[in-house]
Amino acid sequence: NDLDSYVRFLIMRLLNSLQGKALNYAKDPGADASAKSTLFMMNNTFYLLEQLGATSRHKTKELPDGEIDGDTFRIDSPWFREKVGKIFEAEKTKYVKHWEVLNSHLTSVDKSELTYQGGSDKLLSLESGRLIKARFSGFIEDFEKLYSVHQPLAVVDPKLRAMLQRDVMNVFYPRYTRFFEKYARVQFSKKNMD
After folding, report:
1. How far, CA to CA in Å, does 116 sit from each of 65, 87, 129, 192?
2. Could you give the CA distance from residue 90 to residue 76 in angstroms, rounded to a whole number?
3. What angle (nearest 5°) sits at the alpha carbon of residue 20, between those of residues 18 and 24?
4. What are the beta bridge partners of residue 130?
5. What is the pTM of this model?
6. What is the per-residue pLDDT across 79-119, written as a single tens digit (0 to 9) for each?
């Protein structure tokens, strides 16, 4: 019981220290400050969960009674997974929210806003074409900005990297696919349809 209390004290001190360092990243100038801060906390809390969590993928060695192997120490108390896991999930939610701005461009154009040239249903008028083109180009511009901010940031753990890639993609990809399938067939520009 004393060991659990001491380990809890150490983990809480470590988390407070990590949060202080994350705040330093958030204070940095530049568009990537918030992303650095959240990635710093995610990388560190994920590492703690993976290395010290009771459900860690690492196997422990059988040791004689009374011996502790420092490489295989696990914290199986519920407070650990709850506290560290909660911080990890909160930071991941913040990170993924950076990508939600892309969805603002993926809204449908109301049919009442679309007019066609010469009364046909095939070629949009110049103004209607611009509505759709603006949504595609706005998405591309914002995606390129976000990518340039997030691309140099490092996520070393392959498991965490794959998780973040999947979660970020789930923010906008399904909506983008529906938007693209709906409007890619519409002739909204004489040039640069690609």
Report:
1. 82, 52, 9, 19
2. 21
3. 110
4. none
5. 0.78
6. 999 999 999 999 999 999 999 999 999 988 777 777 676 66
